[in-house]
Amino acid sequence: LSVSTRFDGKIVPAYIYLDGKRVGEAPFFKSGLKPGSYRLMVRRAGFKSTFKTVILAPGKKLTTVIDLKK
After folding, report:
1. For the chain, which end, N or C, has fewer CB atoms within 10 Å of the first or last residue's CB respectively?
2. What are the CA-CA distances from residue 47 to residues 6, 17, 21, 43, 55 (Å)?
3. Residue 17's pLDDT band (cuts 50, 70, 90)
4. pLDDT of res. 70
5. Helix or strand or coil: residue 65?
6. SS3 sequence, 5-63?
7. Residues paired with residue 51 on neighbouring β-strands, in sequence order
8. Strands 63-67 and 2-7
């Protein structure tokens, strides 16, 4: 799973949570996750939290870009 966050077209850091647990900071990359559905949350001070359900298929890579909103 790869997650990038941006605002106004520029890459910005943000905290990444999977199923409610903080797992790192964007830009984020995590291999070895089990296939299935995950609840992705992105947080950064001064911006609205963003939520998205991501589904990891067996043997596939998933890249997502989150556009942060104030």
Report:
1. C
2. 11, 15, 19, 7, 25
3. very high
4. 94
5. strand
6. EEECCEECCEEEEECCEEEEEECEECCCCCCEEEEEEEECCCCCCEEEEEEECCCCCCE
7. 41
8. parallel
What amino acid occupies position 59? G
Cβ(70)–Cβ(12) under 8 Å? no
Three-state DSSP at 2 gives strand
State the pTM of this model. Answer: 0.92
Residue located via tokens 């947080």: 43
- What average pLDDT does the segment 23-46 reach? 96
Contact 48, 68 (CB under 8 A): yes
| Encoded tokens for 49 | 């939290």
Tokens of 31: 């291999």
